[in-house]
Amino acid sequence: MNKRAVLGLMLAIILPLAGYYIVKSYGESATQMPRRYFFDSVVTSTNNGKQTIDTIWHQASNISLTNQLGKQVTFDDLKGKILVIDFFFTRCPSICPRMAKAMKRLQNSFINSNDSIVQFISLSIDPEHDSVTQLRNFANRYTSNHDSWWFVTGNKKQIYDFALNEIKASVADVNVDTAFIHTENFFLLDKNRVVRGWYNGLDTLAQARLVRDIPLLMLEKNKKKTFKEFLKELFGRS
Q1: E strand segments, 22-61
Q2: pTM
Q3: How far from each other are the two terminal CA atoms of the chain, in whole angstroms?
């Protein structure tokens, strides 16, 4: 095993554990939790009939897709899971293979727990070309766990609406062309599908922050979780 692989393995183990100790030792108020980014305005009515305008954190909507196994899937199928999302297309000759390798490292960081804790999703921005067969061939190059990492295609308008209006990809990356979305960011959504951060998928430091932030959101789900329970959830250990 070369030095880079050893370093990657150490980071995969140390960063989630460090996140646990930081939160448990100092509390959420003293820990920089992944922030929430976008809110919606809602109109509410009081008992006397008056209407007031309130704000709630924006929750990304559900979307129906087809994954690399030919299975119809939705985000509603993933209730209770943390989501890591990126955008790609199988014919991409530039950043997509590099981002897929980075996503593979992320998946490996949570290899024993991600079936129940984290879902990785790569959304095709070229659904006309990216058939189930194309997606499966691409996916096979990077993962053997097709359950916890979906490569998905679907209706192009729905995918682009999701990228631009639901997780605000063009806000995270000002270079996004609305006619052909191609961003190098990973998007982190909590269990309520609220955007909690975006991270440059080609930057190892940004990837390290993402590996740190995922267990923080895991712990946010249950702040009373014991260290033993956290280990079991994270690494599948008893």
Answers
A1: 39-45, 51-57
A2: 0.77
A3: 27
